[in-house]
Structure to design on (373 residues):
């Protein structure tokens, strides 16, 4: 019996490896530790949390979440949006600002996830699809496309940045890279109406291959995250490039969590599809984006979000809510001091299931941490 238990443990460990055989030690450790933590906990994340917040920007070591709870979110969301489609000096500045943010987060012990609101590389329109302006760029930038070399140049810029992010310990900072998110919708130029499944898979595979194998980027964890337009595992995997190309699977879902409707049962069922597939395939799972703008529901954190994540036995590495705009009085997704949902958010913060940055100890090391295992 003991031998069988050990054997099962070895098999699970093998299935939970990064898709990068040369991943840095810190990246491998983060990957393993997120697997372990997800058995009992979920890390809380907030997009652009330390870059700016409700009514402020650029303050050192500040976040709205920290102002409310005393701790930064465990996961800080950032973006490669400034890495292309701008003048050289603007790109250089964006890379340096992001480098500092990412390194500071790592030095504090937090986790970084990077989205990519990628401006259309072959037409106007930005990252959104704009009729009569945007071109379906995926077919142009995949191997064989007329803008393929341009895309390789953009990826080289990302690769150079990835090699520059070193913590105070001298180690490369691991990041959870989440490109081409919400691809099952039509609002981005890489969305389902604008590219075939085969083209999307080709883009994903080339992106991973070029960064990992040609540019020797070994501190990325690759995350596949559609929006919530699936109702089965088959639909979830419609544009999935294959297990050898993905480390983490996720879902973005605002619609079922108050934006369009309150449907906790449906939202939880979709999360379970993601979590179940991850466990079956030996991948990480996460609730990669959600939130309720302005958080007018004063019990949303526990009665909607936490309830949905705990409806089924799921293993979710993290949940991330969207940004708090600096100027808009209504565009925010995490509470700030005095906001109506603060008392309920404190209950969410204090729940043993949720983890914030102050809860994380040595998440980039192999040894056990938190005393929770």
């Amino acid at each position: 019996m003991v031998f069988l238990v050990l054997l099962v443990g070895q098999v699970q460990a093998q299935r939970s490896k990064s898709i990068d055989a040369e991943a840095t030690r810190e990246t491998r450790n983060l990957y393993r530790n997120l697997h372990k933590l997800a058995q009992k906990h979920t890390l809380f994340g907030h997009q652009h949390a330390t870059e700016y917040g409700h009514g402020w920007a650029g303050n050192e070591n500040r976040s709205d979440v920290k102002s409310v709870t005393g701790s930064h979110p465990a996961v800080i969301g950032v973006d490669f949006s400034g890495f292309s489609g701008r003048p050289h000096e603007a790109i250089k500045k964006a890379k340096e600002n992001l480098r500092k943010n990412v390194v500071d987060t790592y030095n504090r012990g937090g986790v970084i996830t990077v989205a990519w609101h990628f401006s259309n590389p072959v037409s106007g329109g930005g990252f959104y699809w704009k009729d009569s302006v945007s071109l379906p760029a995926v077919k142009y930038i995949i191997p064989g496309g007329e803008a393929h070399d341009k895309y390789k140049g953009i990826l080289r810029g990302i690769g150079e940045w990835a090699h520059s992010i070193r913590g105070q310990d001298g180690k490369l900072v691991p990041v959870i890279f989440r490109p081409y998110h919400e691809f099952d919708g039509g609002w981005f130029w890489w969305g389902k109406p604008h590219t075939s499944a085969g083209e999307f898979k080709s883009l994903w595979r080339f992106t991973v291959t070029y960064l990992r194998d040609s540019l020797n980027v070994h501190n990325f964890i690759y995350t596949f995250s559609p929006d919530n337009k699936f109702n089965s595992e088959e639909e979830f995997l419609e544009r999935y490039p294959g297990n050898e190309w993905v480390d983490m699977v996720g879902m973005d879902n605002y619609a079922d969590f108050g934006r369009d409707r309150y449907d906790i049962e449906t939202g939880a069922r979709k999360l379970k599809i993601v979590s179940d597939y991850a466990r079956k395939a030996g991948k990480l799972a996460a609730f990669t984006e959600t939130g309720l703008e302005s958080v007018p529901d004063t019990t949303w954190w526990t009665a909607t979000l936490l309830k949905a994540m705990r409806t089924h036995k799921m293993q979710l590495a993290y949940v991330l809510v969207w940004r708090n705009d600096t100027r808009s009085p209504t565009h925010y997704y995490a509470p700030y001091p005095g906001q109506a949902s603060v008392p309920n958010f404190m209950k969410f913060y204090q729940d043993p299931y949720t983890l914030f940055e102050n809860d994380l100890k040595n998440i980039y090391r192999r040894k056990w941490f938190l005393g929770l295992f």
About this structure: The longest strand covers residues 284-290. The CA atoms of residues 81 and 331 lie 19 Å apart. The radius of gyration is 20 Å.
